[in-house]
From TrEMBL:
InterPro entries: Ice-binding_C. This is PEP-CTERM sorting domain-containing protein.
Length: 244
């Protein structure tokens, strides 16, 4: 049997009137969670479409990242032979955090590639200098972090691992600021796709409004119950005085 939207609304209001205050808060939070939908992933740079990313670690390719998933698709090969490395930079705006770096594609006969992260608009080392870092001839604290990645990382967030394998180290999520990414492969040609997720560090205005509205509603309901209880108690006391 079909139920009209008016009847459904009446039922919801009736149900909420009889719920405890704590249940009201739970319902409000569930509604907020349901209203926040993740933004779809967007390919912000694809070398097959947008051209080769630069190999210049001191002048990376700027890429515009926005809140949500930002996917970069590229190809690297034989960094010390062909010299095809990919270096790009992006900005995390004020009030936004960088929360993850997910491997969406890795195709190569070589088992590993390397990704380095620096918290600036450049990466301090080129491929030959990184070899010196590996042998201990150059310090690795000149950049923020880094790690190798492979086909075994497909679908996984490698940002936390990047904090602990190379570089100075950090704690995710990363705050607003400029960042540079350096991707290299010392062996065979490698196709990759990395997705960088940015999220707002503060609630959206609509969410804040809902929270304020819910808080006011709960306070008014509590105050109404308190006034009603005091009136009932006052009536009972007055009745006792009359009986006497």
């Amino acid at each position: 049997m079909a139920v009209s939207s008016q009847s459904q609304s009446h039922f919801r209001h009736a149900l909420l009137r009889h719920l405890p205050v704590r249940c009201h808060l739970i319902v409000m939070l569930l509604a907020l969670a349901a209203s926040v939908r993740p933004l779809p992933a967007a390919i912000v740079y694809d070398e097959a479409v947008d051209g080769e990313l630069t190999s210049d670690n001191l002048a990376p390719q700027p890429i515009n990242f926005t809140i949500g998933d930002n996917t970069v698709v590229g190809t690297v090969e034989s960094s010390q032979g062909v010299g095809n490395v990919d270096v790009f930079t992006f900005n995390v705006p004020t009030g936004v955090q960088w929360t993850s770096m997910v491997v969406d594609n890795y195709e190569s006969t070589d088992s590993l590639a390397f990704v380095g992260i620096n918290d600036d608009s450049f990466f301090p080392y080129n491929t030959f200098e990184l070899d010196l870092v590996n042998f201990g001839d150059l310090p690795d604290d000149a950049f923020l972090g880094g790690t190798t990645f492979s086909s075994f990382d497909l679908g996984n967030d490698i940002l936390p691992r990047s904090a602990n394998v190379a570089g100075r180290g950090f704690t995710a999520p990363l705050p607003s600021g400029d960042y540079s990414i350096y991707i290299q492969q010392t062996g065979a040609i490698t196709d990759y796709a990395l997705t960088f997720n940015l999220v707002s560090a503060v609630p959206e205005p609509g969410v804040v409004s809902l929270l304020l509205l819910g808080s006011v509603s709960l306070l008014m309901r509590r105050r109404g119950r308190r006034v009603s209880l005091l009136m009932r108690r006052g009536g009972r006391r007055k009745g006792l005085c009359i009986d006497r």
